[in-house]
């Protein structure tokens, strides 16, 4: 869902960056991913968070940026982007947006996000989840007959 939102609105910003599975990344890895997104280089070695912050400050300074961080689970991962942080919104230009997806509200509270700025996505109904799984896994609205039971058991587990 976050990737789809990013694709829809990214052309309204310059530059824009999307980082998935933030929960699996250290601060340095996240900064490297952001540098790669914003600087267009897929092979950046920043070494330290300080070097990554310095590169990103230059790339983001007073620009209308879009940053999407998908699956954040810890405030420490995104602390550098917090208001007052070294890459906080005071660096970006007007109209910039930071979108954070998380399964847990605590990183948002630690980030001082106002409640009215939090959008909670409703869970899919069973039939919607089944159809989405079928479309993604089998490129059809329904799975082949031999995969129906397996698909349903997978959804019960998820």
UniProtKB/TrEMBL annotation:
It comes from the Eukaryota. Residues 1-141 form the NB-ARC domain. GO terms for biological process: defense response. Gene3D superfamilies: P-loop containing nucleotide triphosphate hydrolases. GO terms for molecular function: ADP binding. PANTHER family: DISEASE RESISTANCE PROTEIN CHL1, LEUCINE-RICH REPEAT-CONTAINING PROTEIN. This is Putative TIR-NBS-LRR resistance protein.
């Amino acid at each position: 869902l976050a990737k789809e939102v990013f694709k829809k609105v990214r052309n309204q910003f310059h530059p824009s960056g999307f980082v998935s599975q933030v929960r699996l990344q250290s601060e340095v890895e996240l900064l490297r991913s952001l540098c790669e997104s914003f600087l267009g280089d897929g092979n950046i070695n920043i070494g330290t968070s300080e070097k990554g912050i310095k590169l990103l400050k230059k790339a983001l300074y007073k620009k209308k940026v879009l940053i999407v961080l998908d699956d954040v689970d810890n405030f420490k991962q995104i602390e550098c982007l917090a208001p007052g942080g070294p890459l906080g919104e005071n660096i970006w230009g007007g109209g910039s947006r930071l979108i954070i997806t998380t399964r847990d509200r605590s990183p948002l509270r630690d980030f001082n996000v106002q409640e009215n700025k939090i959008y909670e996505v409703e869970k899919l109904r069973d039939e919607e989840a089944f159809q989405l799984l079928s479309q993604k896994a089998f490129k059809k609205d329904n799975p082949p007959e031999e995969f129906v039971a397996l698909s349903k058991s997978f959804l019960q587990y998820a």
